[in-house]
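Our preliminary data section would be incomplete without showing what the modeling component actually yields. Below, a chain of 411 amino acids is followed by its predicted structure, encoded as tokens that our downstream tools consume directly.
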Amino acid sequence: MSVIKVAILGFGTVGEGVYRTIQSHAEEITAVLGKKVEVTAILIQNKQKKREVREDVLLTTDFAEILQLPQLDVVIEAIVDIEPTFTYLKKAIGRGCHIITANKEMFAHHGKELLGLARENNVLVGYEATVAGGIPVIQTLRQLLKINRVSLIQGILNGTSNFILSEMREKKQSFAESLLQAQKNGYAEADPTNDVEGFDAFYKAMILSRIAFGEEPNWHDVERQGITSITNELMEAAEKLGLRFKHVASISREDGRVVAAVKPVLVGNENPFYHVEGVENAVNVHSDIVGRITLQGPGAGMFPTASAMIEDLVYVCQSHSIEHIGSRKECSKGKPDSEKPKEHWLIHGGIKKEADSAITWIDKVAKDTFIIEAAQKDLEQFVQQQSEVCYFSILGEVDLPVLNKAAVSVI
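Predicted structure:
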């Protein structure tokens, strides 16, 4: 029986998970591929550290040694940072290897170039693990995009920020206390900026945009908001309304262009994200034929991420066609800003000036906290006249309880 030779770059949580899964599911992988998969080399940082791997596996700190192996079919990358990862994968493609990556930041920046190089070298790129851990959202989009036209993707794409919001609400903790718990549990890094400020979700959203629409928005035009402004006071106000805070990335095509945002929003119990708690991820896809589908599952961890990479291993070894990222069929164009319907918002802060008639003040939830109805452009214009005011969109149709029928004063 012929053998597929694999190298793993990095042997941390993800790399070790991939190695262990290849060993534990060897029979299943062989049955699917008709070939045995064998890990032949692992790129490591410290040769002195003891690792439980077979004696015939090359352990090396030098990537050049891996490239010089007599047979090398697939390179699975499980490192962090943009470099040297990008350089390693380019060299692997040049060698004629399929590549699989979980590195969302690197792939957001250089995925288009890697896919182009792969086409030139007649190899494939697997990147399911870059977006939502064990959730097969990329494979699902690949299937949907054969006929369906995707109009909107929304997702909870970062388990750390979702865990923090869940802890704040359930345990009545501050953001700082919930972040510390996330760090103790190993969900957040010592520097949590990428997670709590939305960079991680942003990179994932750009990857999804490329798949769904064949292009990305201008990165500088994407609204990116973290969760650090959410306080216990805001959490309590949301609970009074039967709403929950979620950190959601959205990508859509509007008025002929792709637009995206990563920001905290409020959802009611009819929204599929309402019950997504802890480190779970979820992705909601809207398309013209199938309608709306939601995928939910673990967004990170040793075996969820390894699962996505092993499925990619099967994908690259079985596929005979090279993925092409190009122009996707458009759904009907969205409405121009001037025609967009009004939305409900939760607005909070020291409001110093009355709004004009474009904003409807619906109710006062708590001190300096109101429910309003407005078009986004009108709300943004109003907020520019204020100081230290924040606002959050309420997604979808929700039944807002009437807390006070009396006229709302904002002064």
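The longest strand covers residues 244-254. The first helix runs from residue 13 to 24. Preliminary results of this kind motivate Aim 1 of the renewal.
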